[in-house]
Prior knowledge:
The chain is of the alpha+beta class. The chain has helices at about 20-25, 30-35, 125-135, 135-154; strands spanning about 5-15, 45-50, 55-60, 65-75, 80-85, 100-110, 115-125. A hairpin with a 5-residue loop joins β6 and β7 (about 115-125).
Amino acid sequence: MTFIRVAPVRKSITVNAPQAHAFDVFARRLDAWWPRAHHIAKPAMKEAVIEPRAGGRWYEKGEDDSECDWGRVLAWEPPSRLVLSWTVNGKFQIDETVESEVEVRFIAEGEKTTRVELEHRIAAEDAQALRDAVDSPGGWTGLLELYAKEAEAK
């Protein structure tokens, strides 16, 4: 198997929310903003979950109560940083050989404003296909816009 590393996908968005709230909405309330159409398993997704600890799981629960792991929590550092492994390939299938990480930093720019910087590092057999998908409008750009709406709704 040949692993290819590609340039990381980098996205940034500023939200009108304090740093701790911005972190909590992204990490503890993922299900409030993650779109139901962005699921991997066959059954429709009922819930998206990030377990709040290093070593925790990042996964979806199906409407049939099945669970599908997307990756693991590599770093849990509220309110400033979250790092997740991503074991999904360019066909959006679970693939344990994918070495991919999503790092999210929450940088306070004031009492009520936070800059959120996301970097998705990818090493996979189909790395360019995965990069193209997560760098598209339906990838991290659109996901961060949904996240920002939820973070700002309080």
